[in-house]
Design brief:
Jelly Rolls, Purple Acid Phosphatase, chain A, domain 2, 7-stranded mixed sheet, 11 helices, signal, acid phosphatase activity, Calcineurin-like_PHP
């Protein structure tokens, strides 16, 4: 490979005439029927900015043309990839729908201009780069979202394509934006439709055509491999850069080929790159290079970014289910970038031939952004090995198309240990270590035993897992291969045939190694169903030998929970500790229904659903969507009908909470000295005349605002010697489902006294007298500089808030009219599970913790102390419950579920001294003093 930034003139002179790509006069489709468009169908008026090339349409929906509603055969489901909404009323529909699409054009290829064809119902206006190029069935003059079409089209008229020829100057070289607005004749119109086709005409278009791809492989923080196939041999060329119109860097192949592979190097980690592919012999040729052709390089190892993963098994059948699964996932993920794409085996049916990969994989996904943007990582299944039915030697000689189609890490290019083989490999992505194994192909030294203890794959696997065992940069380990250890779907992991080969060997030989090295998630296919376990460990037997008390994680890991983490009963997340001495469990997923299904006339196997599975689905296909961010992993099974049929969450080391009101939020406030009575505390109260500002709202402290125009300035009235006593604050929040929260933590900063209400109910009173409060009620005491900087923490039950709109109100009172300063801030967090703590002995049950023998009450060392954030306790402090208080005895943190405390984070707290008091068996201990600097 060779990189250069200049023209390839010298290279072209060296190429013989025979080696040049032949050309002929032709036309080329720039925008095809069935292309993906962005669209806006919310009834708003977009003015004129939406037509320009620089307009941001990131929030718009996207779908494939024809985009429509109301015609016979048109989509009626909002999850359909070409459904357009007409609004909430069928008798008062939106008049206008907007459409946008970006394209890359090499204008030199089309000296005779372009042919534009549109299908519309009723009226249409088309713009290229903000300039109008076509208006049909629309009035003259200015167009708005309320402008109706000139006439209502009949069934015959709305099926007629309108055609116009445009000059070559109408488009720019590089990126162009097509913008279209379709208008109805009236709000009662029965249907709407839009389609568009753009063809470049004249000139000479190379006969070389793009047959496959481009698709991405082997992504690293500094590199990416692009592969594609052409109809004739050429020297592959990739242009890339920071924007579609600035592909200033070029890499080309050293020799001609039809199957192209170009590796980009020296890239910047976690950075977006646009690209196009073409042929070096014809530098103006762009085989593909649209606004959808881009990728992000991987983050550096250890960087905890939000990582999105699509996993699908047994998908390459070319079935309607495969198409439905694709569309359901793409609709669910929307415009979010997908970082990794896992193929779990049986990627091309029935024999894994190259022609089957083309028909059932590349042709299926060729128009989707996923194949253009997301690097794919695969494992071979038995059908990729021709099901060992062609020459009967595929399983041993590995002469299969899979290894020609895919490029995988052999030399630890992205971390891990080099395997030297593409059958099995590993790599790092951010804080995730990913391993792909081969569960069907035999190897020398392994004989016919899959995962033989002394086979090369198992020897490598142990080295790889050992290498990342103590790597602090890696917090998740995901392993995938084709054949599942537990299933009762289209295959039976306990059948005599399977017990005699791969599934038994996987359980008995492979799983103990995964347990030993604390793997988190295993993904498989093969069985054409969806099955998902809880956290499972130390389980290598048959279904009848499964014992949830032994093989699921302990109670402290929420081991018997569904893991759905959605507010349904017993749905808490699974919890794992990075410091646990043994693995607390692995979630096993069988996702083998992404294209294939249970054969007609067949059923699931005896024993369905498998006893080890939390969720088992055999009637509908789907795929797995993973999001990994920091120490949290969320997984969803997106069914082919668009529904999330299953989900689970794994969290490591820290209990999560969701910030509902943050410090720095905007509040309404009243600072005019009036007494609003009690009605101001309710949600229905009209606070439109109140001021608004961002917390901390205050006056008088050093650094506080002194200008009335500051966004957090509160007035004390016209007299500095006779200030207003009370200031009132209001904020509304909307909770779509309050039941997902176990409770709420509220933190309040006040000077001097405060009363807080939720939906009109008092939830907190501090430094205020009892009884009725009015605007002239003074605080009990004037707070000193240290006290007024201490956050007050209140724990509220889940019933404190309701679904929908809630109002939080607060009144802050001064100690007297001569008070020098006033301040108010409030934070609200929703907690979603009971307290969970890390443990140096995760096997201990709550009852065992509550009755720890006195011999366990060893002296505890706290370090660093003083601290600016976390302190660590060694050994971990056992407790039945504990509280953390300030020197005034006010509780700032409380945990009531028994456990072990290895660390505590004081970073949210104000500087000062705190007392850690362990209760229960540990109540004989003296309070531990901790100083926060």
């Amino acid at each position: 490979m060779k990189t250069y930034l200049l023209l390839l003139t010298g290279l072209f002179l060296l190429l013989s005439t025979e080696n040049r790509v032949k050309a002929q006069s032709s036309s080329l489709t720039l925008v095809a029927q069935g292309a993906t468009w962005k669209y806006l169908d919310n009834g708003s008026d977009q003015g004129t900015d939406w037509r320009s090339i620089c307009y941001s349409d990131g929030t718009w929906k996207q779908g494939v043309t024809r985009l429509s509603y109301g015609e016979l055969g048109d989509p009626t489901s909002p999850t359909a990839p070409n459904f357009v909404s007409y609004g909430p009323s069928a008798t008062n529909k939106y008049i206008t729908t907007y459409f946008r699409k970006k394209i890359m054009v090499d204008v030199a290829q089309y000296p005779d201009g372009y042919e534009l064809r549109v299908l519309r119902d009723d009226g249409i206006v088309v713009y290229f780069n903000g300039a109008e190029v076509l208006r049909d069935n629309m009035p003259a003059g200015t167009i708005t979202s309320k402008t109706t079409a000139s006439t209502s089209l009949g069934d015959g008229e709305e099926a007629i394509w309108k055609k116009v020829t445009l000059p070559k100057t109408i488009l720019n070289n590089g990126e162009n934006t097509l913008a279209v607005e379709v208008h109805q004749f009236s709000a009662g119109s029965s249907d709407m439709a839009f389609n568009l086709e753009l063809v470049g005409i004249g000139g000479t278009t190379p006969t070389t055509q793009l047959l496959r791809g481009p698709y991405l492989q082997m992504g690293t923080p500094t590199g990416m491999t692009l592969r594609w196939r052409t109809s004739s041999a050429s020297m592959g060329l990739v242009r890339y850069g920071s924007s579609p119109g600035s592909l200033t860097q070029v890499v080309y192949e050293a020799t001609q080929a039809t199957d192209h592979s170009v590796s980009l190097t020296n890239l910047t980690p976690n950075t977006k790159y646009y690209y196009s592919v073409g042929a070096a012999e014809t530098p103006t040729l762009v085989l593909q290079g649209t606004a959808d052709n881009y990728f992000f390089t991987a983050p550096t190892t250890g960087t905890a970014k939000k990582t999105r993963i699509w996993a699908m098994g047994d998908f390459g059948e070319g079935t309607q289910r495969q198409l439905n699964v694709r569309d359901a996932f793409m609709n669910h993920v929307g415009s979010n970038y997908v970082d990794l794409w896992f193929w779990l085996g049986d990627n091309a049916y029935p024999g894994g031939l190259d022609t089957e990969y083309q028909k059932n994989l590349f042709d299926v996904y060729k128009n989707d952004r996923i194949i253009k943007q997301t690097p794919s990582y695969a494992t071979p299944g038995n059908h990729d090995y021709a099901n060992n039915n062609l020459t009967k030697t595929e399983r041993t000689d590995h002469r299969i198309a899979y290894f020609d189609v895919m490029s995988h890490f052999k030399n630890a290019e992205a971390g891990g240990v080099a395997s030297g083989k593409e059958e099995y490999y590993s790599f790092n992505y951010g804080n995730i270590h990913i391993i792909s194994l081969d569960s069907f192909g035999y190897e020398p030294g392994q004989g016919t035993t899959i995962f033989g203890a002394n086979g090369p794959q198992m020897i490598w696997l142990k080295k790889d897992l050992e290498a990342i065992k103590n790597n602090p940069a890696i917090q998740w380990t995901i392993v995938f291969w084709h054949h599942p250890p537990y299933t009762k779907g289209s295959h039976d992991s306990d059948s005599p045939a399977n017990l005699a080969n791969e599934l038994r060997d996987i359980r008995q030989r492979l799983l103990p190694v995964l347990d030993q090295y604390k793997v988190d998630l295993v993904l498989n296919g093969h069985s054409h169903v969806y099955e998902r376990s809880r956290l499972v460990r130390n389980y290598t037997g048959t279904e009848t030998e499964f014992n949830p008390e032994l093989h699921n994680a302990p109670a402290l890991n929420n081991g018997q929970s569904s893991g759905r983490y959605d507010g349904s009963p017993n749905s808490c997340y699974y919890y794992k500790s990075s410091t646990a001495p043994v693995n607390e469990g692995i979630v096993y997923v069988v996702c083998g229904a992404s294209g294939a299904g249970i054969d007609p006339g067949s059923t699931t196997k005896e024993g369905w659903p498998h006893n080890a599975m939390q969720t088992s689905i055999e009637t509908v296909g789907g795929s797995m969507y993973l999001e990994v961010e920091g120490k949290r992993l969320d997984a969803k099974f997106i069914a082919e009908d668009g529904q999330v049929r299953d989900q689970f969450t794994i969290i490591k080391d820290t209990q999560p909470s969701q910030t509902l009101i943050a410090s720095g939020a905007t509040w309404k406030y009243l600072d005019n000295g009036t007494d609003p009575g009690t009605a101001w505390r309710t949600a229905s109260y009209n606070d439109a005349s109140w001021k608004q500002g961002t917390t901390r709202l205050s006056y008088g402290e050093i650094g506080d605002p002194t200008s009335p125009t500051a966004p957090n300035f509160v007035s004390y009235g016209p007299s500095a010697a006779n200030k207003y006593i009370t200031t009132y604050f209001r904020k509304k929040i909307t909770l779509s489902d309050a039941s997902v929260y176990n409770g709420f933590d509220m933190r309040v900063l006040r000077d001097d006294g405060v009363v807080v209400y939720v939906n009109g109910n008092e939830v907190f009173r501090n430094n205020m007298p009892t009884g009725t409060i009015s605007a002239t009620t003074t605080a009990l005491a004037g707070l000193g500089d240290g006290e007024e900087a201490i956050w007050q923490t209140i724990t509220l039950p889940r019933t404190a808030f309701v679904n929908g709109e809630n109002v939080i109100t607060a009144e802050v009172h001064q100690f007297n009219a001569g008070s020098s300063d006033m301040s108010f801030n409030l934070e609200l967090m929703g907690t979603t599970c009971g307290a969970v703590t890390t443990s140096s002995n995760r096997e201990a049950s709550p009852a065992a913790v509550a009755s720890l023998p006195s011999a366990e009450l060893k002296p505890v060392t706290v370090y660093p102390n003083p601290t600016t954030g976390k302190v660590f306790l060694y050994p971990a402090l056992p407790f039945q419950s504990y509280i953390l208080t300030d020197l005034q005895g006010k509780t700032v943190r409380a945990v009531t579920q028994p456990g072990f405390l290895p660390e505590i984070d004081l970073s949210p707290l104000a500087p000062g001294m705190y007392l850690l008091i362990s209760q229960g068996e540990a109540e004989k201990r003296k309070p531990i003093r901790i100083i926060k600097q």
